[in-house]
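hi! just following up on the protien thing from before. the input was this:
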Amino acid sequence: MTEALHMKHIVKVYSNGVMANKDVTLCVGQGEIHALSGENGAGKSTLMKILFGEEQATSGEIFVNGKQEHITSPQMAIRLGIGMVHQHFMLVPSLSVTENVIMGTEPRKGLFIDQKHARQQVEELGKKYNLYIDPDKKIRDLTVGQKQKVEILKALFRGAKILILDEPTAVLTPQETAELFEELKHLRESGYTIIFISHKLNEIKEICDRITIIRRGVTMGVHNVADVTEEDISRLMVGRDVVLKIEKKPAKPGKPLLRVKDLKVADETGAIHLNGVSFALREGEILGIAGVEGNGQSQMIDAITGMGHVSSGSIELAGNDITGAGVRKIRSMKLAHIPEDRMTAGVAANLSIRENVIADKLSWKRFSSGGLLKRKEIRTYGEEMVREYQILCKSQDVEIGSLSGGNIQKGVVARELSAEPVVVVANQPTRGVDVGASEFIRQRLIDIRDQGKGVLLITSDLNEVLGLSDSLIVMYEGRIVAYISDVSSMTEAELGTYMLGIQTQPEERIKEALHETEQ
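and the predicted 3d structure came back as:
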């Protein structure tokens, strides 16, 4: 095997004493798809930041194509042929495909950008690697899968021969994932090297040649993917057996807790994002919402949680009208919200774990009296939350933003589920979270359901939405296009056809099925 990349005994210690990488070695061959896996906080992200020049290793060596390199910046990494496709796309929506691909490396004709040549280059590159997208299309008009192609084209345009893909299928449908895998295989056959970072073990088994597993900053081994099972991989990742199949008792739905009727949301330009959506979430039920991102789910969740406006229609929580109510009022009525973006809407990153998990409970009698805080009780509670929700940290006093993504998410879940909610809105609850933390969070949501509460689950992880949901709604272009009452009979491929709008249920059938949930 000819080595494209060899990172030897990488150590990274931050100024606050946190050791992200204790001893990591990663060896990737030319023309292979190599999986990099590990639980949240294992050191994967730090390792890739070091490779891409965003961080500097405390010690260790990096060899690219057999030559030792000291990578001091992303620009240097790009010059060495290393490209990174981030999980959150770095695209400008108002610009065209061509303008996004060439940004920063524009071909010139005298003092001006050679637009004709640039467009031709992007078109030829797309056709050559089976990544063709109309060069003139605006990014805002593309599907999620098409945007991902543009990100890969950006890296290839800059001369990347080693591609780092961070959770590349997180928001893709099964059909888009299958298409991406064909494109990655084509790149591999063309001699490109791909580092595939993912928590989806079935995808690692399908697409990758070898896998390097990291646990708590140390390399746990390198394996041929064909020689290990998903259970083997998860055990090496978290150091124990993990239940990969979601197990739960049959649901016993009761009366409706949350009713949404004819909900419509339009923005200031008049564009309609949600068009007459109606459903009911019942006691003892997990109701899944599936759909490709950008089909109205975000606007619906914002309206329900008080973070967005309602153009028309109504929302009831436990029989009370909350249409247009603010966040504080809705939370006081026992609606908990695990937001999609934990860093933007889920936590105050510069505050401690304790301050984050107690933020919505300072008025509770246990924690305050006569306007004075009971600091001892608050510290005790912080310790309880860290222990109960298995938050990996040095102490409850550390800034929550310094934790790994999975442990930050556990902090969000701890705050929301410990608030004694009646309804939990869980938006992408395990996105970017390892198998161990995912298992923990999913079980907590099942426990809430089994206590007779309601869970509204929005997730792009089809295994999760099919495994956790008792019933399921599919959204497309701001409408409900399918209601599945028996989720056990639904396959990922069939669900994907509804999500892409290829298949829809008759409107009358949807109305009849939803009407039954309101009785």
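The two ends are 64 Å apart (CA to CA).
The longest strand covers residues 3-13.
cheers
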